[in-house]
Amino acid sequence: MKSILSLARLMLLACCAFSAAAHAGRNCEEKPPTVQAVMRGMELAERTREALDASGHDLVLLARVGQDLRKYGVHYSHLGLAYREPDGNGGHVWRVLHKLNECGSDHAAIYRQGLGQFFLSDPFRYEAAFAAPNQAWQQKLLPSMRDKQRALQMHHRPYSMVAYAWATRYQQSNQYVIETMAAAMLPAGASRMKAQAWLMAQDYEPATLRLDALTRLGGRISSANIAFDDHPNEKRYADRIETVTADSVFRWLERSGLGGRAQVVALQGPGR
Phi then psi for 29, rounded to 5 degrees? Predict the structure, then answer.
């Protein structure tokens, strides 16, 4: 009986979380989650929590496989900053600070969610990965996680899913994360341009997506959250779209020595 009541509470919380997440940006369809999707999302959240606890870190970059982007050479579609904070009862909880596009529109907002909400987003695959910046960097970042104004410092509302990594006209979700990371290493009040300059100096290399003119045109016409006019013409017309991906951030952290290798947490079986 106790387990049944626990499951019922879990389902109620999960459905509420799903509604909030749908409104926040995955999509705006009134589509309730299935029991299986809720259970698998919560299982992935629990396994991720266990792995994060075992890591001994206070802050990590956390990625999920929300969409199937394999044809573009991209594995993880979305990146957030997961951090540990006291729960007021002598323990702790993990929160995720991340940026979500709102209903396929041309703008986005910043959200702070629990692990359960983060993984209740109709993922393509029930898989997560996390990597930790070095300890000194974690400590510089933590105040930005817990303070609303600091968390919004690098946020830019106009959104494009393929925003150019070295421009400020738009900002996509993974770009917000890496610019927030850079801002923690700069004097208070630093601009996005200065954050990007710091990333360049630290040899960050964005991913290069090969998108031909027809693909770009179709994406721009059919989706408000896709724009290419911030990309330099010489790269855009050569079908080179340089943008921030979770994969490229993980590679950079390990290559630069600024962080550790990404660890994977996955459930067996397919997503949707």
Answer: -75, 140
CB–CB of 194/186 below 8 Å? Answer: yes
- Dihedral sign computed on CA atoms, order 204, 209, 212, 217: negative
Domains and CATH numbers, the chain: 2-266 (3.90.1720.10)
Give the pLDDT of residue 113. Answer: 96
Region at 103 (left for phi over 0; alpha for psi -120 to 50; beta for the rest) = left
Identify the H or E element spanning 81: strand 78-86
Where residue 104 falls (left for φ over 0; alpha for ψ -120 to 50; beta otherwise) is left
Three-state SS string over 149-174 comes to HHHCCCCCCECCCCCCCCCCCCCCHH
Amino acid, single-letter form, for residue 135: Q
User: Of the candidates 207, 269, 217, which has an alpha carbon nearest to the alpha carbon of residue 243?
Assistant: 207
pTM, two decimals, is 0.88
Tell me the β-bridge partners of 79: 63
Tell me which of 21-35, 105-119, 254-268 is least confident: 21-35
Q: Does position 269 have pLDDT exceeding 90, yes or no?
A: no
The DSSP code for 114 is E
CA 18/CA 8 separation, integer angstroms? 15
Q: How far apart are CA 148 and CA 152, in angstroms?
A: 6
Q: Is 124 helix (H, G, I), strand (E, B) or coil?
A: coil
Please, where are the H alpha helices in the chain?
Answer: 2-24, 35-55, 115-119, 135-146, 148-151, 173-183, 192-201, 213-222, 233-236, 246-256
User: Considering Cα of 255, then 168, then 61, then 45, what sign does the dihedral take?
Assistant: negative
